[in-house]
Amino acid sequence: MMIAKNDKISEIINGKRVIVKKPELLAPAGNLEKLKVAILYGADAVFIGGQEYGLRSNADNFTLEEIAEGVRFANKYGAKIYVTTNIYAHNENIPGLDKYLKGLEEAGVTGIIVADPLIIETARRVAPKLEVHLSTQQSLTNWKAVQFWKEEGLERVVLARETSAEEIREIKEKVDIEIEAFIHGAMCIAYSGRCVLSNHMTARDSNRGGCCQSCRWDYDLYKLDSGKEIALFDENDAPFAMSPKDLNLIQSIPKMIELGIDSLKIEGRMKSIHYVATVVSVYRKVIDAYCADPDNFVIKKEWLEELDKCANRDTAPAFFEGVPGYKEQMFGVHSKKTTYDFAGLVLDYDKETKMVTLQQRNFFKPGDEVEFFGPQIDNFTQVIEKIWDEDGNELDAARHPLQIVKFKVDKEVFPYNMMRKGH
Amino acid sequence: MKKPELLVTPIDVAHIRDLAEAGADAVMIGEQRYGLRLAGEFKREDIVEAVKVAREHNIKVYVAMNAIFHNDKVDELGDYVKFLADTGVDAIVFGDPAVLMTVREVAPHMKLHWNTETTATNWYACNYWGRKGAKRAVLAREINMDAIIEIKEHAEVEIEVQVHGMTCMFQSKRSLIGNYFEYQGKVMEIEKRKYDKGMFLYDKERDNKYPIFEDENGTHIMSPNDICIIDELEDMIDAEIDSFKIDGILHEREYITEVTKKYRLAIDLCAENREEYRKVKDQLLAEIEAIQPVHRPLDTGFFFKETVY
């Protein structure tokens, strides 16, 4: 067995160790606006879904024209676009695949994320410029299976979410292939690709994007004993549940970087623009800070707090740090309400008059305390005074979705900075 | 007319004898260390015995190595494959490409059946694994009869279809039953019942009962109904599907044997005397209904059902 020679991860430069193999930060985007925000907030690459063959049939999803526009935008920032084409196809999905993949290649996307060998080989044949990355839907859990896919010519594999740090280390040592691993977002509680609860319970095909999240429902656990059904719960117990907490590996980023993982992936093509911006900007800061000075790195409390501001559920490190126990599941809890709302998107700022022009995204009014954040600024809070509409009429509140409003902000803000409001 | 193989999952070596006499052409066995959701646990010495019994009855033995392997077991796969080859089993059932790689290395002539349970959903993927070395593809349970027949028309490998029994809906690496007991503060229950086989989840809204169990491979949740299409075999026999499987997991041995007898009769009649098959098929279905456990209703799975997405 050939032991792959991995890239050097760090070097001593001027007496100080720095990380020279910086991983890609890969973000999700459900539409063009989220794609732009992800890149502006620091993503090195963005994965999106097209109109077909992806696994979120309820998401907005991009037309080929929008994909091409996304690629043009990404190119300006040196960022890459990957398209998820990771369904397990049925016969009826075969017609149209050639044309679709050619369209992606023409749109200039860097690669596709694929589970089905049908799509892998069709892409090689009709769209050879596309990189092919193996989706987590293949539930890749060992180095020998990774070796198989390397020999099949794939550029990158996304590992199963069930792999631990130690397993990833061994895979990296034994196989010379790019590894992508999830760092943040919602989890499947099952091995991905091996769950058809949705098919059986609602006739929606989970492996073609129809998952109805039956794993988030409540069930009652019984035991059948000589024909009698015995309840294995008391009145006071929450029902049986298998709803996993969301993944959050912020504390493990240093370890992931030292392992040489090539791409750190945030889940969430269905998530809001506020979520994408917040999560991407935090991980951008963590990765940059660690790579610049790994030996003096500490996780800042404000980063953890920032992630919490957009969390939909409680979070946990899941399999990276060992097999998760009951504390990494939710019993009797169905979601955690986020503590902050996304209230507005900055369109412009006049340094002379200190006036911001902002697109309303949720209700706010004079007297509200709001927080601004964005890639160029440190978070700051501010109490809103008077608000005007575009024509200079004073408003008692910004209550119309997407309305353009103006008000004074003391510190400088930049287009695509965001304003959020606590409950 | 070509008859499909009748493949059944036995509970132990003695059961293989019963099944062979009941008309099975092949059995699938294995142990949970390498195989998923088996009707019985067959250690190495049992496999040796199983092959002997199978040879006496002129039936085939397939061994399950279809677990999702983590690094910790990769190094022992070679030894197990070699053992299976030396023992003379007829095929290895796999899902993880690590098994395929291992077979290429240590037993290149061993027949391979590709079975991931849920992902054999189109003919191209079946042929792909055929080009990589598989001789057979076991189709996902979530596709319909028309799709199965279309796959068979395009297939360069043998096609196996489950015709009877429960199917797996879910596998998690997490210890979901143990975690629930731990959450409830019933640590004693974990020792006592974690590996019990009689547990089920009740879904009030659908009034369904889903069997759930844990083993070395994690937590498994099974379908609320048993597939039974003993009265709908014509199209698949005409299409020359290669193998029909009866999965006996979580059923009693007598039940599995009886069901095997009935499918034997149904397949023989359907292939040799179509008129007679049409006359007796409803009766055969009624006979299975009669021995069906009360908590296991029969249905036709996804054979005649469309899914959306």
UniProtKB/TrEMBL annotation, chain A:
Chain segments annotated as coiled-coil in the UniProt record: none
GO biological process entries: proteolysis
Keyword Hydrolase: yes
Keywords from the UniProt entry: Hydrolase, Protease
Magnesium recorded as keyword: no
Domain Peptidase family U32 C-terminal: 339-420
Entry GO MF terms: peptidase activity
Recorded family membership: Belongs to the peptidase U32 family.
The protein's name in its UniProt record: Putative protease
Organism: Paranoxybacillus vitaminiphilus
From TrEMBL, chain B:
Any Pfam family the entry gives: Peptidase_U32
Keywords: Hydrolase, Protease
Keyword Protease: yes
Protein origin, superkingdom: Bacteria
Name of the featured protein: Putative protease
Repressor among keywords: no
GO molecular function, one term: peptidase activity
GO biological process: proteolysis
UniProt cross-references to InterPro entries, sorted A to Z: Peptidase_U32, RNA/ubiquinone_mod_enzymes, rSAM_sf
